[in-house]
């Protein structure tokens, strides 16, 4: 069976689609067979990203490793048929969830072998994971953490394995060190209570927004036109390499 990677967070703007595209493409470039489902049926940023990539390759007459894009079906169980269609050809299937609580998102979390939760490094995003006092003390899990807990219970009842949950601290700035330490301390406390790992994600970089119209990632820059890698690009590439290593996915050896 394919290993399912769910990228979820009930808050928009946390970097879910950017994370989804870079993880899926990195795996494809390393020779793994990768499929993807965009479960944000309204905005479809991940799906549009992959469609832009296919269109770019067609225009340029090049062949870049590209994840297969499936589509959720209709009816009472829209995910199972789409997953079964992808599983025949895929080692990994990535599910990109919307920034809201939906039935599709709930189902995707219960199916996750690996769960990636990107969050901006602020207490606004932290509030979806846990309630916190003005003094910085964690008071208890919040709505998103409770949803993950329910997903874990559903997997346990079904006899499935545990969810390996990784929280990514995106947009870590070099300034505001006091706030960074407070958020980091609160995450460390919460991770011990409810069982997730914490890792640095992607910094705020213009390149991520520039790549979307052509469906490219940091790993495609040389193949797609010979653009010279800047120091910012090299640093972002290292962030992606660190993320893939931190995911600890089965059978994956980093080769980029």
TrEMBL record:
Q: Which organism is it from?
A: Paracoccus aestuarii
Q: Which Pfam families match?
A: MipZ (PF09140)
- Alphabetical list of InterPro entries matching this protein: DNA_Partitioning_ATPase, MipZ, P-loop_NTPase
Q: What is this protein called?
A: ATPase
